[in-house]
């Protein structure tokens, strides 16, 4: 199991050492793959700045949500156990349907929600929510970060226009690590 503390020490300035063997067609999924993706989620959050009004209180938790069929199982809790984001506790929420989504800061959208992606977008509305998914063409559909297999490693694409629309500031360090960065509106 990956420990975020150990990963953070190794990857404090870069995510480039994250690697996992992935099949070209993105299936089947492995437990190790989702441990890695959970660590990526935590590190993505560390390279993004949310506006102060994204938090109801100064001590409000940082909420990571998963909507749809949950490929992580207990992995998110295991990898993020005891971690904090900017001094805030991290809370993990799971939502079975887009209309169930409540206040979140980072939302992983399961591939099971591809047909309901417009509903997910409507549910998050104008809120400052970083959206991440495995869905093919997720960035082209208006999502912010799309996990992709890249030379037998886990890579990601970014849609900076979507992040800006949500009033999120993405570090140039993270942008440099992205396989592709889109600045165009979908």
Describe what this molecule looks like in 3D:
The protein is α/β, with parallel strands linked by helices. The longest helix has 16 residues, at 31-46. It contains 6 helices and 10 strands. The strands form 2 sheets. The protein has an 8-stranded mixed beta sheet. Strands 1-9 form a two-stranded antiparallel sheet. Helices cover 26% and strands 24% of the residues. The chain has a single domain, classed as Response regulator (Rossmann fold, 3-Layer(aba) Sandwich).
- How large a portion of the residues is in β-strands, by DSSP E? 15-25%
Low-confidence stretches: 1-29
Number of domains: 1
- CATH topology (level 3) name: Rossmann fold
The spatial strand order of the largest sheet comes to 3-4-2-5-6-7-8-10
Gyration radius, rounded: 15 Å
Give the overall shape, derived from the CA principal axes: globular
| Share of residues in helices | 25-40%
| Mean pLDDT metric | 84
The CATH architecture category equals 3-Layer(aba) Sandwich
Secondary-structure element sequence? HHEEHEEEHEEEHEHE
Extended strand count:
10
CATH class identity? Alpha Beta
């Amino acid at each position: 199991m990956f420990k975020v503390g150990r990963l953070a020490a190794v990857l404090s300035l870069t995510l480039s050492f994250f690697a996992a063997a992935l099949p070209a067609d993105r299936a089947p999924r492995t437990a190790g793959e989702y441990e890695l993706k959970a660590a990526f989620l935590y590190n993505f959050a560390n390279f993004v700045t949310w506006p102060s009004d994204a938090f109801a209180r100064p001590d409000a938790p940082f909420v990571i949500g998963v909507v749809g069929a949950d490929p992580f199982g207990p992995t998110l809790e295991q990898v993020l156990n005891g971690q904090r984001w900017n001094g805030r506790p991290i809370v993990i929420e799971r939502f079975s349907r887009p209309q169930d989504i409540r206040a979140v800061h980072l939302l992983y959208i399961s591939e099971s929600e591809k047909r309901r992606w417009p509903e997910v977008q409507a549910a998050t509305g104008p809120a400052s929510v970083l959206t991440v998914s495995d869905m093919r063409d997720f960035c082209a559909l208006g999502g912010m970060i799309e996990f992709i297999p890249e030379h037998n490693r886990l890579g990601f694409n970014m849609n900076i226009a979507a992040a800006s629309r949500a009033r999120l500031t993405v570090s140039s360090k993270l942008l440099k690590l992205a396989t592709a960065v889109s600045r165009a509106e979908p």
